[in-house]
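subagent[fold] <- orchestrator: predict structure for attached chain, return tokens only, no commentary.
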Amino acid sequence: MTDEYISREKTLELLKSLSSRDYRRKKGTIQDAIKMISYAVYTPAADVAPVRHGRWIYHDDGVFTCSECGNAESNDSYYCRLCGAKMDGV
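subagent[fold] -> orchestrator:
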């Protein structure tokens, strides 16, 4: 199972909008929403970076270059050693 990362800001906006709508229908819901908001605020953030996507460009002399940074490699791996681009051609 892979982790999925969400935006804390968008999650808080969603929880706040739900709590104000549900409050009109049920009194207990606002306390539940406040708990959920506090969980979202105090949950530690993951240390993530956006994924760069690239592809290997093959040259006749047997060298591969990264489409993102131009780094030359002797073999085609899944990631560029220089810039970290994921070589999936997306």
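orchestrator: received. Logging for downstream: The CA atoms of residues 8 and 79 lie 29 Å apart. The helical segments are 8-25, 29-42.
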